[in-house]
Amino acid sequence: MNLFKRKNIHDSFSDRLLMIFIYTVLIIFTAIILLPLLHVIAASFSDPQAVIAGKVSIFPVNPTFKGYEAVLKYQPIMLGFRNSLIYLVLGTTINISMTMLAAYALSRREFRARKALSILFMVTMIISGGIVPLYLLVNALHMDNTIWAMVIPNAISVWNLMIARTYIQNQIPNDLYEVASIDGCTPFSYFWRIVLPLSKPIIAVLSLYYGVSQWNSYFNAMLFINNPNLEPLQIKLRQLLVLNTVDPTMITNVEQLIAKQGITDLLKYSTIVIASLPVLIIYPLVQKHFVKGMMIGSVKG
């Protein structure tokens, strides 16, 4: 029986000290990240007067749904939310389509120009045309003040393209292409019927990356969108957080001023929570593919 007993392995004092230090640092960083998030969530559910008085910490004070009711009744926020959903779905679809098609082409050994094109793609990661040429190009193509200005300029990410290309090269044997060709499968049919189904892990990872980027995108909207009906949620949120001001001289009733300021603050916190929901919903759906796709796609074969 003694042969099957496991010997206790004791960590040295220096190992224990190191682990204590690591866990302490992790706890501090977790608190720095988590506490502001809890404060925002608590403030969004708190009474407006408690928010103004600074009584809210990480727990709601006099819980209420006034903030979310204000968001639902505030038309610009709902319009921005709708626009962001459109940009998210349309933009991510274009991103994935362009990335996978280019990655498939660059992964084919019989494609003689694949090395030269890969170099040209990677050069764009170092050298950029700049904002002014981009604006002139979008304007010349008459895409400004259209939904295409939000999805076409960022249609493909070179970094994601290289990850997808590496995944296809490492995880999909070239023998499959030869067998499919013998059976009369065309290159596009091979891509559609074989490559895409086998690339679900990396597609899930890229969808998360592209989706988060599309949802948080506001710089292109600032450059190319002047129509309030096309502005995404992030621009509406920026207007609330940065540009929104209340002129006290325009309101003679002090109670009315306080009430308006309270609803305004509550509206800001509620909008922040709503703006974060899509990312929090999407991530659990692709979590099982996330680590696998990233580890395989990032290793060069």
From TrEMBL:
Pfam families registered for this protein in UniProt: BPD_transp_1
BP terms from Gene Ontology: transmembrane transport
Stretches assigned to the ABC transmembrane type-1 domain: 81-286
Superkingdom classification of source: Bacteria
Coiled coil segments of this chain: none
UniProt entry tagged with the keyword rRNA-binding: no
InterPro entries: MetI-like, MetI-like_sf
Keyword Coiled coil: no
Topology versus the membrane: Multi-pass membrane protein
Keywords, comma-separated and alphabetical: Cell membrane, Membrane, Transmembrane, Transmembrane helix, Transport
Chain segments annotated as transmembrane: 20-42, 85-107, 119-141, 147-168, 189-212, 266-286
CDD domains: TM_PBP2
A GO CC annotation given for this chain: plasma membrane
Subcellular location: Cell membrane
PANTHER family: ABC TRANSPORTER PERMEASE PROTEIN MG189-RELATED-RELATED, POLYGALACTURONAN_RHAMNOGALACTURONAN TRANSPORT SYSTEM PERMEASE PROTEIN YTCP
Family: Belongs to the binding-protein-dependent transport system permease family.
Identification of the protein by name: ABC transmembrane type-1 domain-containing protein
Lineage: Bacteria, Bacillati, Bacillota, Clostridia, Eubacteriales
